[in-house]
Design brief:
Number of strands of chain A: 9
CATH superfamily of the largest domain in chain A: Dehydroquinate synthase-like - alpha domain
Number of helices of chain A: 16
Order of helices and strands of chain A: EEHEHHEHEHHEEEEHHHHHHHHHH
Structural class of chain A: alpha/beta
Oligomer: homodimer
Radius of gyration of chain A: 20 Å
Largest interface: A-B, 42 and 42 residues
C-alpha cells in the first residue's frame, strides 16, 4: 500500500427531507448566496422551490446562475464568478448533478482569481487561497462531485474538456435526498450508474496490488451498482435503490478507493475527448469505451485483476483458465452496460464517426501515458476504432 | 437506508515515515503538548524517541502522561487533565493503541471541565465547548479509536467500563505507520484483529437490511481481517498485512459502516462487563463471546444475515438450507477466532468463573435492550454461561 494523506471533511446530510439542513449550512459561512443550476429539472422536481423557500424564510439573499450545460463551459463559470463579485456572494449552492457542482466549484475558485478562469483548469493560474465555500444539493447519482475535490470543465472553442483537482474545491456540505432522484429519466439513471461503475473500475485497475482493503471496497461499490441499477430503472421511486446508488456515487470517487492505490484514470481521459468534441453524456461514453479499453490492457501482467473481477464480482468459477476468466469478465461488463442498463454500445449510436478520432487519440496522450497500462496515441486510436 | 449526517474530518497521514508530519500537525493547533502513552512498548519500538526528537528539534514544549492502563482508568484521565491545566497545554498527542487514545480523548475533554471526569463518562456532565485537539500516533491495529469519536474508560472502584461518544472527541490528525506494528506480539496482533472483526460484525448485524452498500463495506473489512490476520501472525514484519489491518481498524468503526444503519452494539456491552470486572484484553473477550451471542440471536427473523455471512464471506453453498448455513457461519467465525488467530475460546481460560456473571448480566441490561436482538439479563447470563 502506498503512503497517503486522507482528508475528506465534507459534511453529508443524507436522506429524506434533508434539504431542511440547507439554511443552517449556509449560516455557517455567510448570508449571500449564488444558486448554480442547469435546466428545468430542478424546477420540475421541487428542489428549486424547496431551496428558495428556505432561503427566503431565513432572509438569505440569493441570485441565480442558471443554464449550466451538461458539460459545463468555461464561459458559464466566468458568468458565475462575475455574479459573485457583483453581489458580494459568500456561499455558493449548487443544485443538481455533477455538471452544476463542477461549474460551481470553479465559480468558487474563480471569484477571487484575477485572470481567465480557464487558466485554473489548464494550470497556468493557481487556485487562490480564498475559495468560496460550496454547498452541493445533489439530484443525480453519478459523478460523485458532491464529495470530491475535482471539477471537469469544457472549452468548446478549443475542443478541450479537462479536469482540475484541488482540496479547496471539495464541497463543505452535501445534501443528498434520494427522493430527488426519483424523477431522473431512465437514460440518465443508466448513464449515472455506468459513471459510478466506471469510476470504481478505474480505481480497481491499479498497478498497486497490495491495497486489498481498497480493492474490496471497489467490489462493494460495483456490486451495489449491479444490484440497484436495474431496480432503479424498473422502479424509479424505489427509495432503497436510489439511496444505495446515491451513496455509492460519492464513495466511488471521494478518495477512499484511491488513497494507498495508484489510479491511472485511463477510460476517463479517453471519454473526455469524446465529450469535448461531441458533447455526449459522460457515463454513456465511459460505458462504450470501457470493454474495449479492458481488451486493450489485458495481458499476462494484468490478467490477475480481471480474474478477481470474474470470480469475486461476477461469480465465475475460479478453476477456469485465467485468460478465459478475463474474457468472461469483459463480456460480463459489456453485458451490464449494454443489456442490463440498456446503454448504447457503439460510438456511431451517439453520433460519433471517424472524423476526429486521430485528434482525440493524440490529445489524451499525456494522461494515458500514466494510465494503468501506459498507452500510445496509436493504441488510443485502436480503442476508439474498436468502439465505432 | 436510515437518514444520517456523515462527518469524519480526521486527517490521516498513513504509511512509512509519516511521523515526519507530527510537528506540522502540532503547529496547526499550538506549541505546548501533553504526550499520553502506556507502558514501555513505545519506548522499545522507537516511536517515543522519534516523536520527542521531532518536538525538541522544533522547540515544542512537552510533558508526559505515562502509565495509561490497557483498560484506561478514570484516575489516569484526571491526572492528565491536571497536567494540561498545570502546563497550559494546547495539543494532546496520544502514542499507542486504543487505550492511550481513549484516555487522551477524555483528557482533552476534562481539561476544561470543572467536575469529576467520570461525570463525562456517565453523562451527568457535558463535554465542554473547549475540547483540546488530539493527534493520535497509532501503534496497534485494533480499536479504531484513531478515527472515531468514542472513548471507553474504566472505573475499577465501581466495576464499570463505559463508553462515551461525542464529535469533539474525534482526533484531528492520525499518524499511522504500519511499521510501528511490526513489533506487536502475536497475542496482541490476534486480539487486535478480533477487535476489528468484531466491530465490523456488530455493524453487519443491523436490523436495517436496506443499507446494502454499508453491508458490502462490512464484508470487505471482514475479508481483510481473514486474509491478513494470519499473515501478520506468521510474518510480523509483512508490511502489506500490517498496512491492510491498520487501515481496516479505522474503517471498522469510523462511522462509515454505521451511518444509514442501526447498530445495536450487542457483543461490546457484554464484553465491557468482563473487562470491568477482570481487566482482560478487549479483543479476546469479544472473540470468546461472539459465537455464543450469534447462537443466542439466531432465529427465523435474523437468519438472512447469517446466510449472507455464510455465502458471501465464508463461501458456503447458497443452495443449503438457511439454518444450516447459519450454523456453518457461526462455526466458521469461531474457527477464525480460535483456530486461525489462536485466541482463547472460553472465559475460564482468561481466569473468569461464575462469581460475577449475574452482576455482569444485569449491568449490561440497558445497552442490550437496544441491541440487534433485544436481550434480557437472563439471556445475557445464558451467553456468559455458554462461554465459560
Amino acid at each position: 500500500m502506498n503512503n497517503f494523506t486522507y482528508s475528506v471533511p465534507t459534511t453529508v446530510h443524507f436522506g429524506k427531507g434533508q434539504i431542511s439542513q440547507l439554511t443552517d449550512s449556509v449560516k455557517l459561512y455567510g448570508s449571500r448566496v449564488l444558486l448554480v443550476y442547469g435546466g428545468g429539472s430542478i424546477k420540475k422536481n421541487g428542489v428549486y422551490d424547496a431551496a428558495t423557500a428556505l432561503l427566503k424564510e431565513n432572509n438569505i439573499f440569493y441570485v441565480d446562475l442558471d443554464g449550466v450545460e451538461p458539460n459545463p463551459r468555461v464561459e458559464t463559470v466566468a458568468r458565475g464568478a462575475a455574479l459573485c463579485r457583483e453581489h458580494d456572494i459568500d456561499v455558493v449552492i449548487a443544485l443538481g448533478g455533477g455538471s452544476s457542482i463542477d461549474c460551481a466549484k470553479i465559480v468558487c475558485a474563480a471569484t477571487n482569481y484575477d485572470g481567465d478562469p480557464w487558466d485554473l483548469i489548464i494550470g497556468t493560474g493557481s487556485v487562490p487561497e480564498t475559495v468560496l465555500p460550496l454547498i452541493a444539493v445533489l439530484t443525480l447519482a453519478a459523478t460523485g462531485s458532491e464529495m470530491d475535490p475535482v471539477a471537469v470543465i469544457s472549452n468548446m472553442t478549443l475542443n478541450r474538456k479537462l479536469s482540475i483537482g484541488h482540496p479547496a474545491l471539495r464541497p463543505k456540505v452535501a445534501i443528498m435526498d434520494p427522493e430527488y432522484t426519483f424523477s431522473v429519466p431512465k437514460y440518465q439513471t443508466a448513464s449515472g450508474t455506468a459513471d459510478i461503475f466506471s469510476h470504481t473500475l478505474e480505481s480497481f485497475f491499479s498497478p498497486v496490488r497490495s491495497a486489498y482493503l481498497q480493492n474490496q471496497f471497489c467490489l462493494a461499490i460495483l456490486k451495489t451498482c449491479m444490484k440497484y441499477g436495474p431496480i432503479a430503472l424498473e422502479e424509479p421511486d424505489n427509495y432503497e435503490a436510489r439511496a444505495n446508488l446515491m451513496w455509492a456515487s460519492s464513495w466511488a470517487i471521494n478518495d477512499t478507493l484511491k488513497k494507498g492505490n495508484e489510479i491511472g484514470w485511463s477510460v476517463h481521459p479517453l471519454e473526455h475527448e469524446l465529450s469535448a468534441y461531441y458533447d455526449i453524456t459522460h457515463g454513456v461514453g465511459l460505458a462504450i469505451l470501457t470493454p474495449h479499453w479492458m481488451r486493450a490492457v489485458l495481458s499476462e501482467e494484468t490478467v490477475d485483476r480481471f480474474v478477481t473481477l470474474a470470480t469475486e464480482l461476477y461469480g465465475f468459477d475460479a478453476s477456469l483458465p485465467a485468460m478465459e476468466l478475463a474474457d468472461l469478465a469483459i463480456d460480463a461488463t459489456a453485458k451490464f452496460f449494454f443489456e442490463t442498463l440498456g446503454l448504447p454500445s457503439t460510438l456511431k449510436e451517439v453520433g460519433i464517426d471517424e472524423t476526429h478520432l486521430e485528434a482525440m487519440a493524440h490529445n489524451c496522450k499525456a494522461r494515458l501515458s500514466q494510465g494503468f497500462v501506459p498507452l500510445t496515441p496509436e493504441q488510443n486510436l485502436e480503442i476508439y476504432k474498436a468502439a465505432l
